[in-house]
Amino acid sequence: MKIILKILRPSAICLLLTVIFYTQNIYSEETYTNPVLVETMNLKSEEGFTNPVFGLLGIGDPAVIFHEGRYYLYPTGDQHSYNVYISTDLINWSKGPKVFKSIESGAWAPDVFYNPDDKKFYLYYTVNRKIGVAVSDRPDGMFTDKRILIKGAIDAHMFKDEDGKYYLYYVEYPAFRIFVQSMQNPTQKQGKPVQIIRPDTPWEKKHAAITEAPWMLKHKETYYLIYSGGGADTQDYAIGYATSKSPTGPFIKYAGNPIIKKGQGVFGPGHASVTKDRNGKMWMVYHQQKDKSKGWDRIICIDPVSFDEKGVLIGNPTRSTLQPAPATPFIEVQPPRY
Prior knowledge:
Blueprint: H1 2-7, H2 10-25, E1 31-32, E2 40-43, E3 55-58, E4 60-67, E5 70-76, E6 81-87, E7 94-101, E8 108-115, E9 120-127, E10 130-136, E11 144-151, E12 153-160, E13 166-172, E14 177-185, E15 188-189, E16 194-197, E17 211-219, E18 222-229, E19 238-244, E20 252-253, E21 267-276, E22 282-289, E23 298-307, E24 313-315, E25 323-324
Antiparallel strand pairs: 1-25, 2-3, 4-5, 5-6, 6-7, 8-9, 9-10, 10-11, 12-13, 13-14, 14-15, 14-16, 17-18, 18-19, 19-20, 21-22, 22-23, 23-24
């Protein structure tokens, strides 16, 4: 290096050192600990509606998307509406505006899908055990309700395959079986739904027979259906996955399920979504129970997940343990306007 610097002109040396500095520092080397987002509220039981979620509630069931330099997180909140939370690094979150309101109770587990074809954002909401779809021009804008899609269902998730076909995954309620519905477009169904997963293993039936919170990944022509099982209000809630060569199945559950479960200070990890940092590394965004107590006092956490050389999806939930942070380039992002 010293020989090269002697040969180069001063201006060239400055340019070279700038390039070296930028290359070495384009990604932050920060660390983080879980949880990354905590917000709690007290909910009252409502007359005329048997609401299983009341008392102390911590936001949970996070769905995350990345768009134009920001991450947008949509969780279950006050049971009548959804707020969006915004971050540039998956660690530091600011609470944004309400993006959806309902006169009915039971607003749970939203999912937001950005469609590059029409540049619209689609919110798949659950309200009073019905799944519907709403649309917005921006991820932090108010979503306009379009229609109810499925009754007797919760936990919708939209997946668009590489061939341009749409698939809506959801949970039949109260049977807690996971179905997939082929879609003509983000707001219109096509054909009949297909059952792909049901609670039939011991970990899925602990406290209650549940398979829920579907989230789809595709890796090397294999479809990975991530889902949660067991009692959602307990420390035994956990995450597993199943694989298929088709988005409509048949799906085979991984023999090593659950892959994300309680232990080492972690309680009830579940209801995950997956996004990537700017290095392409996958991050699972999910909730944990705050402690061993039964209830809905949840906290939002993030941890990396990856595929090994055999295609096995692996991850490790953490709590209060210093971890390398997601890779975030030093880029200037304009503040959002509401």
